[in-house]
């Protein structure tokens, strides 16, 4: 029998501080974009989706390292192992300062609801916020913001997403730098179906990544990737803290957690992740063959194909 841990319609959020330096609390599902249902969040807090070789663990957390020799084919991507719907989510992290390289801390749902923190290495003094709804196109540049960071993005900072049922706040080192509501974003939205709001409402993963935008244009969004003598660049993540909210924005210990269930292997669907209490040894990366690019704040390529299929099934 295979045990499934699929969350209910409100996700399976559990409040707490999750240190990222314990390798034993990580598992992997290389080539996936969303959590396989066999992923056990009671055993593992985090899961590697791409480029296992780019991860290393130390006293100050986990390092996500992008190597020049792999360039755009080696996006380094991971996720928390629970789906969150409404929560205050904090991450203590550094970002890459190499032009052309993107570092992200985002929420992402199978339905393509998304809330972003992103940095680009060409701009070491600012971080960018964004919000997307159901993957609706035609809104690039409509729902984002640029916000100053004390010091440099290469230093440790605490970035927060405070996601409530009618508002989202982005916070840098305890200071609110942006706040939106459904009404404020509806006024900017294009192609929004009648009766809907430009606002995430579906349970989402908390994802982290570092990747090469692959541009040769210094005036592009990311800047031109200029490795020069640099052979690698790293973003570090020390911990995340999650305070779950219920549908009335009340802080709660848990929200939406569904009981696990056992199913026969023949109906489990897909390959189960390695879930043995620790990541396996080895250096295989499972890199997407077609590289990466920017669609909203997510890493795309073969991973996006899986995302699209799951999103279609969920709608």
Write the layout of secondary structure elements.
Blueprint: E1 2-4, E2 13-14, E3 16-19, E4 26-28, E5 46-50, E6 55-58, E7 61-67, E8 76-80, E9 87-93, E10 101-108, E11 114-120, E12 126-132, E13 145-148, E14 157-163, E15 167-172, E16 175-181, H1 182-186, E17 205-212, E18 232-245, E19 251-252, E20 254-255, E21 261-263, E22 294-295, E23 298-299, H2 302-314
Parallel strand pairs: 4-5
Antiparallel strand pairs: 1-21, 2-20, 3-18, 5-8, 6-7, 7-18, 8-17, 9-14, 9-18, 10-11, 10-17, 11-12, 12-13, 14-15, 15-16, 18-19, 22-23
- Could you list the spans in which at least 5 consecutive residues all have pLDDT below 50? 265-278, 280-295, 300-315
Strand content: 35-45%
Q: What is the gyration radius calculated from CA atoms?
A: 18 Å
Sum up the overall morphology in one term.
globular
Structural class: mainly beta
Helix content: under 10%
Query: What is the residue-averaged pLDDT?
Result: 84
Can you count the beta strands? 23
Calculate the terminal CA-CA distance, rounded to whole Å. Answer: 28 Å
DSSP helical segment count? 2
Order of helices and strands: EEEEEEEEEEEEEEEEHEEEEEEEH
Write a concise keyword list for the protein shown above.
315 residues, mainly beta, nine-stranded antiparallel sheet, eight-stranded mixed sheet, 38% strand, globular, disordered C terminus
Summarize the structure.
The chain has 315 residues and is mainly β. Helix content is 6%, strand content 38%. Residues 265-278, 280-295 and 300-315 have low confidence and may be disordered.
């Amino acid at each position: 029998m295979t045990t499934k841990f699929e969350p209910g319609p409100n996700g399976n959020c559990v409040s707490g501080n999750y240190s990222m330096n314990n390798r034993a609390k990580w598992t992997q599902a290389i080539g996936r974009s969303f959590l396989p249902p066999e992923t056990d969040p009671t055993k593992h807090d985090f899961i590697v989706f791409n480029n296992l070789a780019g991860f290393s663990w130390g006293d100050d957390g986990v390092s996500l390292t992008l190597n020049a020799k792999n360039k755009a084919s080696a996006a380094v991507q991971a996720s928390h192992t629970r789906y969150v719907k409404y929560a205050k989510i904090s991450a203590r992290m550094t970002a890459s300062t190499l032009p052309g390289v993107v570092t992200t801390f985002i929420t992402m749902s199978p339905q393509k609801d998304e809330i972003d923190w992103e940095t680009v290495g060409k701009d070491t003094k600012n971080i960018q916020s964004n919000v997307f709804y159901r993957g609706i196109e035609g809104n690039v540049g409509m729902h984002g913001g640029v916000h100053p960071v004390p010091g440099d993005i290469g230093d440790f900072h605490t970035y927060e997403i405070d996601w409530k049922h009618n508002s989202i706040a982005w916070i840098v080192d305890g200071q609110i730098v942006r706040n939106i509501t459904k009404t404020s974003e509806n006024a900017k939205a294009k192609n929004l179906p009648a009766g809907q709001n430009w606002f995430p409402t579906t349970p989402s993963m908390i994802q982290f990544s570092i990747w090469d935008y692959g541009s040769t244009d210094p005036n592009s969004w990311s800047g031109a990737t200029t490795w020069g003598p640099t052979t690698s660049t790293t973003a570090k993540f020390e911990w995340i803290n999650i305070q779950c909210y219920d549908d009335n924005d009340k802080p709660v210990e848990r929200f939406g957690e569904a009981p696990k269930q056992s199913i026969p292997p023949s109906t489990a669907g897909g390959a189960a992740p390695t879930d043995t209490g620790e990541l396996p040894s080895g250096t295989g990366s499972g890199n997407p063959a077609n590289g990466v690019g920017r669609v909203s704040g997510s890493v795309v390529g073969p991973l996006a194909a899986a995302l699209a299929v799951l999103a279609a099934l969920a709608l």
